[in-house]
Every structure is written in structure tokens, then in C-alpha cells.
Amino acid sequence: MKSNKKHILKRSVIFFLLTFLSIPAPIYASYPQAAAMKSDSTISIRTIIKDSLFYKVRENMIKMVQNGETPSLSVAVAKDGKIIWEESFGLADRKKKTPATPHTMYSIASTSKPITATGLMILVERGLIKLNESVNTYIAPAQLTAYEGNASDATVKHLLNHTAGLPLHYSYFYEDESYRKPDMAESIKRYGIMVHPPGETFEYSNFGFGILDYIVEKVSGQTFPDFMKNEVFQPLGMTHSSVNIGPGLEEYAATRYEQDNSPIPFYDVDHAGASSVYSSAHDLLKFGMFHLKDRLPDQKLILDNDAVDEMPNEKDKEAVNWTKETKSGYTLGWMVNNNNNGYATVSHGGGMPGVVSSFNLVPSENIVIVILSNSLNFRVFGFFDEISSAMLPKYKKNLEKNRERKQPEPEPESANPLSELHGRWEGTVRTYDGEMPIIMEFQDDGDVHVLMNQSGGSNEMLILETLLNNVEYKDNNLTGQFYGTIATNDAKRHPHNVLVNMKLKGKRLVGYASAYSTTKRVHFGLSSYISLTKT
Predict the structure, then answer these.
(1) CB-CB contact of 338 with 344 (8 Å)
(2) Global pTM?
(3) Which domains does the chain have, with CATH numbers?
(4) Which residue, among 241, 249, 273, 276, has the nearest Cα to 355 in the 3D structure?
(5) pLDDT, tens digit, for every residue of 280-333?
(6) Handedness of CA 177, 275, 295, 392 (dihedral sign)
(7) Bridge partners of residue 83, in order along the sequence
(8) Contact 99, 110 (CB under 8 A)
(9) Which one, 86, 104, 477, 488, has least CB within 10 Å?
(10) For the CA atoms of the chain, what is the radius of gyration?
């Protein structure tokens, strides 16, 4: 049951977050002619350099760039309605030697989600969308397909909370490759599938937010990029923000880089509302300040205060609680943590090829913290802890205490934790191209043998037997990966393996089987419904 764990770990991290430059000295950049651009809400780079508050974290950021761990970093911090730190390090474009600035537009991956949710809430406030209305009402003639539960029960709010029953999904379409994304109606036909009844399970779904941007388009009568520009970015003074790279903003966009310093060709996705926003550290700071009601003079009231309060609402009974201890959940496009080292925080992060973004609000302290990078280095997320520790002594104390706390001893595992599943399970992987028979045999020694028809509906049966690797079974939920092929036309474009995630329901295992690409360039995680019955 051994596998390439390093490779699997990298892919697994990219699943959830719906995935080095060495220079002789760091490039320091805040605003060009910083002294000339001072205002009541912005202090100059010279003041920042002398300020000891962020000295240590600033040095660590410089080292990260100097060590070639990322081409550039941009950071912005606001407190009590004033911007107290904005600075950038490194190069937004290595070939052009373009220095990063707080106005550099970074691809922000899943940090797009609260921005998309804000745009959708504008239509909710205008009475054009109802959160508890069926998704199918707004996307017709396209429709969700329910393999479990009823499609009509999946609501807009379920999409916003990742509880509509949709499975894992991500898909990248690179400009130097011939394959282009299908239109959204076709994508919904293929991957708008419910593998659990709505409201039953939290399953982080990029495609759900792709459906939300489709709803925005159909209801508003504007393209999603135009709607976000006209209704969110311009009214909030976010002049260096757009869905993908907007016309006239090309010179401000940071290039995305692999960890080996090679540039990544521009790529698009079929879930724009989940992943496609480009924004600067300065603009994201303004977006966060709007949600804290610390609005700047150039910002319009795009949502009334009640709607703003409703979005990151920790009292939302439909929000998903991940842990009872922290009462953390996901509500209307935001991650809410009621006990983040002693403080309630509202946040979202993002990670995909060439991207890490960290966007955090500490409402009780009126703090917004933004960190952006143009490579996939997860150490970037740690800078939030460093900045919070510099500003909030209680946060630092609790963080150190939690790091020192001895982890509880893991409960002893039984000789075969899968004994409950022991035996032969038969069923199908149901793709948009047809059904693929699959068998799983849970054996006495703990191994799980997988037999699947790899021919994808052709007359000739091609049966592959392999092992399910990296198996975990907890709370009636089974996950693992195996070497195999999902024989749909889009999945066959690139080599891939199969990830399964299934729930035990009586004598059935139901969930999804996802083809995830195994090439160096990340292409997709494409999920199909899987159902097995014990024989």
C-alpha cells in the first residue's frame, strides 16, 4: 500500500486550496514616489522601514525573497480605518525585472470567493436572487443532476456554504495548450452533480462558486467580469482588481511562477467565481476595510450594513462547524474562526499553481491583513501569525502556548481499521460519458484491492487491478487513491490517477471518484459519482 507520499501530499493540498528566484538584494517597493503619495490613511515607506513594530516579519519576508523561495511578496495592514503598512518585495515579472508594488495585481485563487459572494449579495439585496431559492431556478435550462437527494433542494445558500452536495473540482486551461474550456451549460451538465443530499455534508467545491458566477451573469444580464467591475471593484475604489486580467491592466499583473522559477503560462478555469480574481494588496485591504465598516471616502455603500453583517455570520445555523473546540465554520463565502489564538477571525486563503493569498480580518480589533505571493509556497500563510503577534500581545502569547502544548497521544488503531468494511463491494463510477464498473475488496490484512473497467464504455473490457493507497477511514468516511483512469474525453487529455471519497450509508458506499492529473503542470481534479454496494 505504499505510494509516492510527497507527490500525493502536494496534490492533496492543491485539492483543498483549490495549487525560486535568487536576486542579489531585495527590491523594496511601496508606492513610487512614496513621499509624494502620503495621505491621512497611508504612511510612507520611509516611516515603515524605521518602524520597529513589523521589523522582524519584514526581515523574514526579505529573506524569503532573497533565498529564492518566491519571486515576490506584497503585504498590507490596516488598523482602525487607517493603512499602517504597505510594502512589496521582489519582482512581479522576472523577465521584465518589474518590481512588485502594493498596486501589483496578483492572482488570488480562492480568496476570490468572498469577493464573488459580495457581488452576489448585491443582487440578493436588490431582490433579484433569493438565498433559499433552488439553484436550478436560476441556471435553467442547465440543471444540476442529483445522484443523492433532490436537485431542487439545492439552494443558492448551499452553494455559498459548500453544502450543496457537489464534489471536489478544479480545472485549469493553459493558453499554450489547444484544449479550451467548454461553455458553462456544458460544464454543469458534466460536473454539476450532487453526490450527497444538500445540507448533509461540507465538501469544498470550486465548481459551486463557478455556478454562482453563472447565476450572477444570468440574473444581472452582464458578463461576470463586467458585473464585478461595475458593481464591486469601481464602487469600492479597487482600481487594480478584475476577473482575470482586465483590459488596460496587463502591465500591473504579476506573472505566476512554478517553484523552480519557471513562468507559468496564463491559465483560465471553469470556476471563475471561485478562483479567477486578480487584485492588489492595496485593493484587498480596501475590500476588507469595507467589510469592517471602516470605509474610505472613495468607497460607495454597495451593501447595507445588515447585508454586510449577514455574510461572515458565526451564528448562522447552516454554517458548517469543522471542530467543536473552535466552532469554526464556512458561511456565505467566508471562513469564520471564533477562537484563533484568542480572537475571532474572518478570512479566506487561496493556493493554486503560482499563487498563495492570505486575507484576514480581526473584527474586534478593526484589523485587516493581506499577504500575496506569485508562487505556491505555503510558508507565506505563516506571515499572518507573525503580523498578528507583532500587533496583538495576547495573540502572540496564545500562539506560543499552543505551539508548546503537548499533542495528545493518538488512539491506538485496531489491526484492521477497515474491518467494518470487510468483504466485496460492487458498483459503478457514473461519468457524463457513461458508467464504469468497479469492485473493491477489503481484505483481512487491511489491503483494499480495486478492480475497474478502464475502457470507458467501449465494447472491449479492460480490467485493471490495483491497490487503494493512503487509505483513511474515520466517522464512516473512506478516502484513498489508486492508479487508474477515468475514461472521459476531458480526463483522458492527461495522465492521472483516481482519488475516492465515500460515505458509508447502510450497505452502500457513495461519494465521488476524481481523476487528478499527475503531470508536473497541474491540470484538473474532475469528479464523477461513485456508488458501491456490499455483496
Answers:
(1) yes
(2) 0.89
(3) 19-93+104-404 (3.40.710.10), 419-534 (2.40.128)
(4) 276
(5) 999 999 999 999 999 999 899 999 988 888 776 655 555 565 555 556 889 999
(6) negative
(7) 78
(8) no
(9) 477
(10) 23
Three-state secondary-structure class, residue 215: helix
Residues 6+ apart with CB under 8 A from 45: 28, 30, 31, 34, 87
Return d(Cα 218, Cα 209) in angstroms, integer.
14
Taking alpha carbons only, the member of 380, 376, 277, 280 closest to residue 333 is 277
Cβ–Cβ contacts within 10 Å for residue 411, how many? 6
Closest CA to 110 of 279, 227, 294: 279
pLDDT for residue 2: 38
Weakest mean pLDDT among 33-37, 260-264, 320-324, 510-514:
33-37
Residues in the chain: 535
Q: What DSSP line would sit under 236-281, residue for residue?
A: TT-TTEEESS-TT-GGGBPPPB-TTSPBPPPEEES-HHHH-EEE-H
Widest pairwise Cα distance in the chain: 76
Decide if pLDDT at 456 tops 70. no
User: What's residue 306's pLDDT?
Assistant: 82
Q: Which of 226, 240, 237 is nearest to 279 (CA)?
A: 240
Calculate the CA 121 to chain-centre distance. Answer: 20
pLDDT value at position 22?
26
Give the three cell numbers for residue 258: 512554478
CA distance from start to end of the chain: 24
Alpha-carbon distance 73 to 68, whole Å?
Answer: 12
In this predicted structure, the answer to whether residue 508 has a pLDDT above a threshold of 70 is: yes
The percentage of residues in the chain with a pLDDT greater than 70, rounded to a whole number, is 84
